[in-house]
Each structure stands twice: as structure tokens, then as C-alpha cells.
Amino acid sequence: MNIFSKIAAGLKKTKDSMMGKLEALMNSFTKIDEDFFEELEELLITCDIGVETSLEICGELRKKVKEKGLTETVQLMDELKEIITEMLGEDKSLDVSSKPAVILVIGVNGAGKTTTIGKLAARYKNECKNVLVAAADTFRAAAIDQLEVWTQRAGVDIVKHEEGSDPAAVVFDAVTAAKARDIDVLICDTAGRLHNKKNLMDELKKISRIVHQQAEGCSLETLLVLDATTGQNAVNQAKLFGETANITGIILTKLDGTAKGGIIISIHRELGIPVKLVGVGEKLDDLQDFCAKDFVDALFETETDFDYNYERLTDGDENEFAEDAEISMEEKTETESENGNVTEMNLEISEMQEKSEINENIEDETAESESELAEAEISEDDVSEEKKSLKDGKFGFLFKEITFGKKKKDTENDEQTDDE
After folding, report:
1. Residues 312-321, buried b or exposed e (16+ Cβ, 10 A)?
2. CA distance 269 to 56
């Protein structure tokens, strides 16, 4: 993965948020009017570009609309891209030309100072430079141990004192050791401090003064590490830190985990401090030099653009894709015919099931009628058996007399009828 692809991947959340809103705004307006510019100003402010910078961008865009006679909103995307590129200005890299080159890293707790120092050390080590790290964060628990792990991973030396010792003394010893050992780059870690803590800010002034005295004539970079996820609060931190230390550059970390990457624009425009490095991941090589052109290209990249590692198709490739398309259509036709056969088979099976259900119903009705007839026969047998039991039972003589008397009476009635 090249540098541009890393920047593009790191800006994905910012791009999806900012460009998604911009495209929706462009599509919702058919003409360029004052209502459009009001909506655009509000959108840019919500994308953490800042009030002053957003108003300036819209002002420049109004000028370009009048100069070029633009009438449709779809024409404004390229103009916005050009305006933001001009605002970011020229890229400025770290100055490590002298020996030793001193890099003083400052910032609030949790911004990612220690991790950034480890990545910087590994970077210059890979460039075949002699690197030394000063562990001047003596207040935070386990800060020295954490930095020592990073230096071991990068393969560089470290100067450290006991926890709770004077940070300025650590920096003094580190500068002296850098001169004695012919070190190319000295990176000094400092305690994380809030910008509203006066005593800690005064200590930062003391460290800066020692570095200037001991490393006079050497190149000095004072880098402020800002967390991109804090949005406009990062700009406020930069303003207050700038009152105490002579900040020469910004390192913007955690850019890959936020949609607030627009603060890069406001930092450049409102503070005049260049963003020199950006963190786009957790790996050692995920600390990249900031390039304004790559930043803007990645921010305004659309889905229809070719990917940065993508090769254009040739005619032969297009023919291959056409053949693949024909094959896929044939496969689709065969699949549909197979699906049709399967459907016919399913219909036949359903008809057979219906017929079997009808036969089962008929059989059930026949069985019910047979069972009723059998019950009727059983009831007649029960009656005959009951009569037999009456004849043969205890009161059988009464049954015989009654039957005999009935037969005798019937016989006399028949004879009387014959005489008449």
C-alpha cells in the first residue's frame, strides 16, 4: 500500500461524512443563490472546518462564481477543491539537517505522544540515522517503561531517570549525550499537560530554554501532538500551547478513527501552523508525511474515479469481459430452464399428493360406514342374546307362560275369523 492509499484509507470516515453532505447539498439546489451559500456555510462548520475558515471558503467561492459565471451547483465541487488546496499551502517537512537535530514532542495526555515518538524513532532508524530518545515524561505512571518498550522495538537507545525526577534534567543529559555520541536525531518526550495548567506550562518553557541553550545552532522542531477525534478543541489546544512554546509543526493522530479530519484546514488557516505528520493507523509505518495535494485528492475522490492502484482496461480486456458476460447469460438461461423443470415436477408432485389425499378420505368414509354396520349387527346380536337369557334365566317360566298365552289368544282369534 503506497503513501496516497494510506492517506485515503485514513480519511475514509471524513470523506464519507463531508463529501456525502456536500453531494446531497449540491443535488438539492438547482441554482446558485444566497440560500445555497448559507446552507454551505453551515455544512462546512459542522464538518469541523471552523467558523472563520468556512466563511472564508464561501467568500472565495462567491468570487469564483461571479468571475466564471457559474450557474449550476454541480460546477462548484472542483472550485471548492481548488480553494482548499490553496488554503493548505506548501508542504513543510521536518528539519533534521543539523547534528544533532532535536525534536521536542508536546501535547495533552492521551493524544498519542509516546506512540508517535516510537514511530518517529523507527522511521529515522530505517533511514540509517543514529537516534536517541529522552524519557522526560517523569510524572505519568509507567510512561518511561512504555517508551522503553517502543525504543526496544525500534532498536534505538534511551536516556532515562527515575520516576518523579526533574524533566528538564533528563533533557539536559540527553542533549549532552547526543553531542558526545554523534547522534543524528534526538527525540524528547515530555509530560502530558493540559493547556490550562500554568505550572506545567511553565515547566515546558524551562525545557525549551534548556534545549535552545545546549543545542544552540542545531535544528529544533517543537511538534504539538493533537488528537483528531477532538475536533475544534484541538484547534483551541494549539492556540494555547502556541503561547508557551514556539510550535513549528503539528502531528495529527488517530485520523483514521474520526470523521473530523476537516480540522487540518482550520489549523493551517487560523493558526498558520503546518501539519507535518498524520497518524493513519497503529503500525510503525502508519505515521505519514502530510501532503496537501494527497489530502485534498483523497477528500474529494468520488466513487467513479479510478482507484490509485487501478490499471485501465484495454480493448482485449473488454472483449474478455464481454465473453464472460455472454457466458454468464447462458448460465442464467440454463438455470432458469432448470428452475422451470423443477417447478413442473413440484406441480406434478402436488397433484399426486392431492389425489392420494382424496383416496384416503374415501377409504376413511368407507371404513366409517363398515364400522357403523358392524355396530348395528352387534346390537341385534345383543338383543337376541338378551331374549335367550330371559328364557333360560331365573324367570324363564314367566316368559314361557306369557308367550304361550299370547300364542293361544292369537290362535282363537284366527279360528273365529274362519267361522265368520
Report:
1. eeeeeeeeee
2. 10
